[in-house]
Structures are given as C-alpha cells and as structure tokens.
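Hi P.,

Sorry for the delay on this. The queue was packed all week, but I finally got your sequence through. Input first:
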Amino acid sequence: MVFRFLQSIFTATAGPAGKYGDATINAAIERVVDGTDPRLRVVRHYRRKLWDAVERSVEYVVTLVDALPPAIDASHRAFTATPQLRASFVSPDHLRDVLSFSKHMRNYLRDNPGPLPAELYAVLGMERGERTVLGVELHGDLIRRDVPQTTVNFSNQRLAFPTDSERETRQELMKRAFDSLIELALANLVAIRTRRRHLEQLHGQLLEKKASVMASARLGLESLLAPTTPTLADCAAIQRQLWDLEEELVQIRGDTATIEQLLARVADTLNAPEQHLRMERVSLTLDHMNVIAPPDSPRVANTLTFDEALLGNDRRLTVLLVRFPSSELLPQPDFFQEAQRLLTPRIC
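Then the structure:
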C-alpha cells in the first residue's frame, strides 16, 4: 500500500506553492520510517516532525529528474549520429547488448509476456573515468610525440527502469532517488548506533578504571589497614585522573542518542537532500578516440553534454534517458536449454 501511495507522489501534479496532498506525504513519511527505524513511530508527533523534511526531499527529487533532457534515440540506426552514444559505447552492437541483456530488461520482459510496445524508454547508467596517456599531436606541419593527453572512458554500462513511456521512466527514477535518500538516512543511523556501542563499551572500561584508581588511592575504609598512606603528590595525580575520567563519562552520556534524536537525524538528512544527492551537467570536448581536445586544438572534436548524479561524497554516475525500438532487442538466452546442452553426454 505504501509503495502505491509513493507512486502517486510522482504521478500527481503538485498543488499550490508546490505542495503535495496530505495522503501522499503521509505515505512518504511511513516509507521513510519503514526504511530507517520503525521505532521512530513511538516519538510523539513523529509525522509532524518529519513532514517538512520529507516534503522537501520529494519536491527536490521531482525537480532534479524533471531537469533531465528528453530521451535520446538509442536505436541501432541512430548510433553513428549520436555523439553521446559513440563516446559511451564501443559499438552499436555493444549498446544493443546492454539494452537487451540487463537485469532490469529481463525482469521487464518476464513481467510483460505479451506483445511489447513499439518503443521502450529506459535509463542508461555508467561510470566515467579519465586517465593521462602519451599521444601524438599535429602542430602545423610538425608531429609532436609523447604529448600528455587525457582520455575519457565509460564503463559498467547498464540499463534500468524500462517502461513504455518517458513519463513512467522518469517517475521510476524519482522513486529510486527518494529511496536513495532514505538509504543515506539509514546509513547515518547505523553510524550513530555503531558509535553508541563503542561509547557504551568505553563507558564500562572507564568505570573499571575509575574503580581501580579509587582503590589505589585507598579512599575507603581499607585505608585503615594500609601500611602506608598516599603522598600529596599522589593524591593530586589521582584527582587529575578522576577529573579526566568524569569529563569523558559526561561526554559519553551526552553523545548517547535517544530515539527522539535519531528521528531528528533522519529529518536533518531529508531536509538537506542537495548535500547527499545532486545532478551535475558536464561538458566534454572529445575527438573520435575520446581524447579531450583543448580549445585551440586542430583536431576534429564534438562538445558533448552529460548529466551526472553525485551520490554522497565519492560516487558519480553518468545518466542518459534513452528510447529505442523494442524490435531491436536480442532474444533472451535460454539458460535451461544451454545447461541441458552442456550436461548432455556426447556420443562419439
């Protein structure tokens, strides 16, 4: 039920001032709680405390995905005329393999056994890398060798969210973007709990150390049986140790998060979605070998624009919305028949 309500968030048109209906935001809040820590429901007025942050994240991912350019033609015929595809794939056959044999496409074909629509839409995701190589460059009539050049390569190409309309593919991308924010909120909670376990363990160690220090100082009745008494210098050193331990213990008590504080951390994550998920437009001027051409280069080059999703602090994913004829999909391999063929003994 929550999943269906979440779908409605990204299919419905926003109301006045960009606000969504109460039912859809409530459903999104429940998805956040289910995806992080269901115990958050014990917090008084948890929905009200999460409302603004969840609504802001919903509006953010909608704006983010709406800003992506229209789907490009990824048909076999259009490959040569589409610089982004030529730069991203080795050949049109490579592109067709990715479109045909991705996990998402297999799932789509399994769930839609009837005749396919004439055209399908999907998202292509890939990773972009750069490396410096030594190449050859022509300067006037002179050929210069061992010139440092930067090449761009795309890897781990994969297809996701195939549907029969661009609108549905965008909606699926919105849902996944929203879920990625929930995953980040959960990762923050896990980090807090890991720290809490560490602090609780440290708390026990400090208490044991404090008991040991007090025992060595002979502050109790045992001092009556001790053959000697500690000096003033010893007492001062022991007192400093006790003060240091007390400061650490107070810090640990302050750092131990309550369930209300955990809910506040979730709200903080969702209230600043731009800190965790961004879309950046990247322009690259590349020649036919995917070498970056400087502005004054005589080489023939195209300036290409890509949209890259930035996930957290260290992950980048190049994103392309594409459309292609379903008739160009290659037949899915029959793994059962292939296994039978390999297991059947040959008779010589």
